[in-house]
Amino acid sequence: MSFAPTSDQGENPAKKQKTASGEFFPDVPTIKYKGPESSDPLSYRFYNPDEEIMGKKMKDWLRFSVCYWHTFRGKGGDPFGFPTMKRHYDDESDSMENAKRRADAAFELFTKLGVEYYTFHDRDVAPEGDTLAKSNANLDEMADYLKSKQDETGVKLLWATQNLFSNPRYMNGAFTNPDAHVLAYGCAQVKKILDVNHKLGGGNLVFWGGREGYQTILNTDMKRELDHMAAVFKMAIKYKEQNGMTPQFLIEPKPREPTKHQYDYDAQTTIAFLKTYGLDEHFKLNIEPNHTTLAGHDFEHDVMIASQYGMLGSVDSNTGDPLLGWDTDQFPSDSKKASLVMGAILDQGGLGAGGLNFDCKVRRESTDDVDLFIGHIGAMDTFARGLRIAVKIREEGILPEMIKQRYASFDSGFGQKVEKGTTTLEDCEEYIKEHGEPEQRSGKQELYEMVLNRFV
Fold it and tell me: What integer pLDDT is reported at residue 350 of this predicted model?
């Protein structure tokens, strides 16, 4: 989300209405599948939404979603410069009229892309007022408008979330703020977004701890802050259950930025937190690969570890630049990496109520409206191709069999007893006395990489 200062280089020349054709993006057609040979950038080469793959339509494996914040609120600002993008449908005011016009443009983009889901923060879609009551009134009005757009187009809400990081009141966090007054304000926003998410049929609700961490340990009681965060999550669970709400709660890990250290550092840290506080039955994870790489892991690591522990709920499908040390939120273009992510999703039978949400922004230099479409088309094709690759890998069976054979010693005999938890240290000692030194077995990394490359 872009909160860089608005340029003071004169009044925004943007038009405030639709073009003469009655569309916001008249030069962009409805995007169609044209096959791998297509050279048309406004077409899909690999994403064929209704094609059956392993018993499901491709669109149901992928469940693509467009995020509101980068796509319709981001204007190319960064810490070093003013925004670079002028959108003809956005007069840059905080008026409700402008908020509704943005929504009109958004739903045109969703439908032309053929994307069935979208996501937003509360402050993305409705301007924040001078009081909580005014902010809530604005959000209620916009929720009614968004509901009408959903009914008109068939586009659904994948998830909503609360922005607890932009307003200066949250400079020390929300749920982990040392001031209980600030914590209460954050909880009031959670209550409201739960109501709005329920009204709009959101299948999930995300908690991203934007400033839930610390800048210096000198002024921080970590245990107390984590206790407070867990207490808030328990309040949210109680409110959800008391009001008959059914969204899957998701936590989105990130190691740092904007704080030096964030408590939801990575998938394993977050799972440990949930289990420590008895919350793991109520939450799953929303994994963002760019956050995973910031934590020092491979792109696919957190998706795979969350999936293997039954905790993968959704994916914020973006990537970062390995030469930059911050969250660049780029559209993914590496089909090999996408195939590893899709392999994990295939192996768990899909994402359930979750999806692949493009938490991505076009580059600051990509200033044309059509670039918004091209970024999404390329990313959708990347994951569609990744899905096709993952399916072929499983159909051929070579890689899965290689992994199975690597761990074959645990399928019977002594190894099987280890997995069942029936062995003792004395048993291990006796096994070595009988069998002696183990044979050296190659990990064959190069062979695994060679086999994977056959499919890419």
Answer: 98
Strands 52-53 and 56-57, by their bridges, are antiparallel
Do residues 233 and 245 make contact, with C-beta atoms less than 8 angstroms apart? no
Task: Please say whether the beta carbons of 212 and 263 come within 8 A.
Answer: yes
Q: What pLDDT shows up at residue 22?
A: 86
Residue ranges in the chain modelled with pLDDT below 50:
1-16
CB 249 within 8 A of CB 205: yes
- SS3 at position 252: strand
The burial of 17, by beta-carbon neighbours within 10 Å (0-12 exposed, 13-18 middle, 19 or more buried), is given as: exposed
**Catalytic annotation, residues:** 121, 124
Instruction: Assess contact for 384 and 58: CB atoms under 8 A.
Output: yes
Q: How far is CA 248 from CA 273, 334, 377, in A?
A: 18, 29, 28
Specify the DSSP element, H or E, that contains 352. none
Answer yes or no: are the C-beta atoms of 103 and 142 closer than 8 Å.
Answer: yes
Burial of 256 (0-12, 13-18, 19+ CB in 10 A): middle
| The one-letter amino acid at 411 | D
Whole-angstrom Cα distance, residue 96 to residue 100?
A: 6
Whole-number pLDDT of residue 3: 40
Nearest to 452 by CA among 408, 396, 406, 407: 396
CA–CA dist 149, 118 (Å, integer): 12
Contact (CB, 8 A) for 110 and 82: no
* Rg (the chain; Cα; Å): 24
